[in-house]
Amino acid sequence: MKDTIKELIEISQYAGCRADYTQGGGGNTSVKNYEKGIMLIKASGYRLKDIDETTAFVGVDLKKISDYYNSVNTSVKKDYEKESAAVSAESVIDLPGIKTLRPSVEVGFHSILKQYVIHTHSVFANILTCSKEGEAIAKEIISGKDYGFIFLPYINPGFELTLAMKRGIEKYEAETGRYPEVIFMKNHGLVINADSAARAINLHTDVNESIKKKFGLEGFEKVTLIPENSGYMSATEIISDFMKGNNLDKEYLDKYPLYPDQLVYLNNILAHSPDTLIVKDGKVFYNTDIKQATTLEETLAAYLFVITNVKKAGLTLAIMNEQEVYFINHWEAEKYRRSVK
Questions:
Q1: What's the rounded Cα separation, in Å, for the pair 48 and 63?
Q2: For residue range 291-329, what is the model confidence (pLDDT) as tens digits?
Q3: What residues pair up with 59 in beta bridges, in sequence order?
């Protein structure tokens, strides 16, 4: 398994060391070892850049999970979220010298994709996924490239998303004779799947660089925090610029729910721990440790980057509806992810 772990580290460090690709514990990666029938995947709640030889990932029985999604009969009335979560838990394999953890909530769709998977919440991709014109722009950007893509509507993460992705891939293959290595998920993010680590990395880079070129954008690979009393003050440019002419509060965030991580890490904090994230005199403060402060700063910077550049480009903002927001706020898997320190 050493080579498989090495490849997981490679794609995880690539995607996890840039705050404009992944924020906090968001995003996930996986590598399949077909010979052993094991898929290594990021553990729920951990950061991609935390993955090393023994930390922040878990092994699962690939056949057990993929067989479930390839044979599940949805005509029977039952709680498929609960059932699929149980299958995920039962699929965990103890690996020598590695702490047994909980797989990413998106282990289902990883199981049905190619050998190497990179899923990020890239701010560049999310300009498209969080705008009504995004799919048309994706077609324009990717036209003529050597890879196919699909653009999924917003689907609740977990069981429903896995089945929707499976159907979307099958439909695209039937219509085009090609396999979609690039998958945009409305109000969520970007998924790359390929037959090699190098191909996955190159595709992810090409998609994001193409979007940056289209809109003339620069990213923010890291955020900036300044120690302040018992916590930290935000000093990331995209946040500072936004605060000069706008009011940021829970009402604003609730008005524009763009994607799950915003709800998990920002709206939830303001609703239940308002002393942790404080907006005062045009500045943002985090009354917490450096790890949580960084997660909140990255998430806020990404959110404001997307919403600012969607509007700047003259696009129409696409937001989650009340039912979609309710699902995320009450989903057990997200409650667990928030609890991981």
A1: 24
A2: 999 999 999 999 999 999 999 999 999 999 999 999 999
A3: 40, 93
Question: What is the pTM assigned to this prediction?
Answer: 0.95
pLDDT value for 219: 87
Rounded to the nearest 10°, the torsion over CA 40, 45, 49, 51 is: -40
- Closest by CA to 6, choosing from 44, 54, 72, is 54
Gap between the Cα atoms of 109 and 189, Å rounded: 14
Among residues 143, 67, 45, the alpha carbon closest in space to that of 111 is found at 67
**C-alpha angle 172-16-208 in degrees, rounded to nearest 5:** 45
pLDDT digits (tens, 9 = 90+) for 86-116: 999 999 999 999 999 999 999 999 999 999 9
Task: Tell me what percent of the residues of the chain surpass a pLDDT of 70.
Answer: 97
Note the pLDDT of residue 337: 47
